[in-house]
Amino acid sequence: MRYRCTTKVEKPAVVTSNCDTFFERSLMQSYSPEFATAESAAGQDIPAPGSSRFHGIVHLHGRLSDPQLGLSQTELVLTSAQYGEAYLRAGWTRL
Fold it and tell me: How far are the Cα atoms of 3, 46, 47, 48 from residue 66, in angstroms, in the given order?
């Protein structure tokens, strides 16, 4: 599957539970690899909702690595125990 941005926006905002980098690759094609990398947040690096940093591609359940974009893999939320840790105990995916 291939995604592509059809309009130019200054501060795109997509919140996803997907771990893949399809959205970043779309930004790479529409803008640049540097922009796509800068606009990706995942895991415990998710900015607080409403803050000036809350924009770009926000991966609630972590992100897989993407060597082409230079993105490293973050902690993934795949099991119910990881879900409880991320949402309830540590709270790093709280929106």
Answer: 16, 18, 21, 24
